[in-house]
Amino acid sequence: MSTIPTRDAAWTLLREYNTDDFHLRHARTVESVLRWFAVELGYGDDADFWAVVGLLHDLDFEQFPDAHCIKVQEIMRERDIDERLIRAVASHGYALTVDIEPQHEMERVLYAVDELTGLIWAAALMRPSKSTQDMEVSSVRKKFKDRKFAAGCSRDVIERGAAMLGWTLDELLAKTLSAMRATEFEVNDGEVS
Q1: Which domain holds residue 115?
Q2: Considering the domain boundaries, does residue 193 fall inside one?
Q3: Domain count of the chain?
Q4: Any residues with CB less than 8 A from the CB of 105 and at least 6 apart, and which?
Q5: What pTM was computed for the model?
Q6: Could you report the per-residue pLDDT of 97-127, keeping only the tens digit for each?
């Protein structure tokens, strides 16, 4: 019988394939942001599921970057993890490495915020406060438009994600910044090493 791992089991699995502090922090950030969105969008009863999807979304990236969103499916199936979770995690590689189109609102949120959280965090680290707490949407928008800044964060993916959700880019930027502000202390106080 397939299972959905607890948060602790998901963290242990993540640590089995990831050791880099950057990747672990990103996983915790996306975990917290997805939990925030679950509650915000009326899926509070599924917040733990959304969070585990966020935590495990890049499970295969550090060790298998060329098979990202592909190898993760194999790893999870070997552990008899629920297909809903496998599909959700893999779908954030849509049109990049897999043809699994995000359908559920959670999958679309993950697709939209994965790259965006990286861009927002990079922008926050440039601030004297090194925090999202004093950031404004206008600052995020300015960094978004500067394609040389955090060049690894795909603006095309972020824009497609906003469109999938039926949100304007500014709505996505504002909501994601709000989610990161609300969860920043939780992410920073959590186990990273």
Answers
A1: 7-188
A2: no
A3: 1
A4: 41, 43, 165
A5: 0.95
A6: 999 999 999 999 999 999 999 999 999 999 9
